[in-house]
Amino acid sequence: MQPTINTAAQVRVSSSALEQAFDAVSEVLGGKRYRYHDEISLHRALAAALRADAMTFRREVPLLGGRIDFVVDLPTPTDITGTVNDSDSDSDSDSEMLRLGIEVKIKGSSRALHRQIQGYAEDPRLHGLIVATTRPVHRTEFTARSVPAIDGTRVLPVRVVELAGVGL
After folding, report:
1. Structural element, H or E, at residue 76
2. Per-residue tens of pLDDT for the chain, all 168 residues
3. Exposure on the CB side of residue 35, measured as CA atoms within 13 A
4. Is 121 within 8 Å of 65 (Cβ atoms)?
5. Which letter, b or e, does each residue of 145-166 get, where b requires 16 or more Cβ atoms within 10 Å of its Cβ?
6. What are the distances in angstroms from CA 81 to CA 14, 36, 89?
7. Per the confidence metrics, is the pTM higher than 0.85?
8. Ordered DSSP codes for 4-69
9. Phi, psi of 164 (to 5 degrees)
10. CB distance 74 to 55 below 8 Å
11. In this structure, what DSSP letter does residue 96 have?
C-alpha cells in the first residue's frame, strides 16, 4: 500500500511557524555527514537521521506533481493562523499537521529541479519544501525562497539544505 496524504483538510500556518519547521528539519538533515553510493543509500541515511530525531515522516509519497522522496509531518505550532476544512468528516489528526516535503538530489540541473518543484507546488497539502542536495550548484543557483506552481495557483516556500558527506 502506497503512503498517501489526507486531502480532506489543510492547515494554514504563519510564516514564523513555517520558518520554525524549516529550521527543525534543516538542522536534522544538515547537521550530519553522510556516506552514500547512490541516491537510494542517501535516502536510507536521511530516513535514519529523521527517525533518530523522532520525526514523523513517509517516503515516496505521491503528490499532484509526482512522487516526492519524503513528507515530514510536524504538529502545528501554537501560532496557527486558521484552519480550512473542505469536508464534513470528523476531526482528523492529519488535519493538524504542518507538512514539509523533502526532495533529495545528488545530480541534475537546477532547471530540472525548478520544474520538479513547480509540479509539487500544485499540491495544496504541502506547506513547504526542502531540497536536500549534495550539489553546491543547487544552493548557489536556486536562490528563490518560493516557487510558483506550474498552473500559477499557489506559491510553495522552499529551502535548500546542502548535505555534507562523501559519495562512494
Report:
1. none
2. 444 444 333 556 778 888 999 999 999 999 889 989 899 999 999 999 999 999 999 999 999 989 999 999 998 765 344 443 333 333 344 557 899 999 999 888 888 888 898 899 999 999 999 999 888 777 666 555 777 777 777 888 889 898 987 664
3. 1
4. yes
5. eebebeeeeeebbbbbbbbeee
6. 6, 40, 21
7. no
8. ----SEEEEE-HHHHHHHHHHHHHHHHTSEEEESSHHHHHHHHHHHHHHTT-EEEEEEEETTEEEE
9. -90, 145
10. yes
11. G
* Cell reading at 120: 509539487
User: Distance (Å, rounded) from C-alpha 158 to C-alpha 144?
Assistant: 7
Q: Please report where in the chains the cell 555527514 appears, as a residue.
A: 33
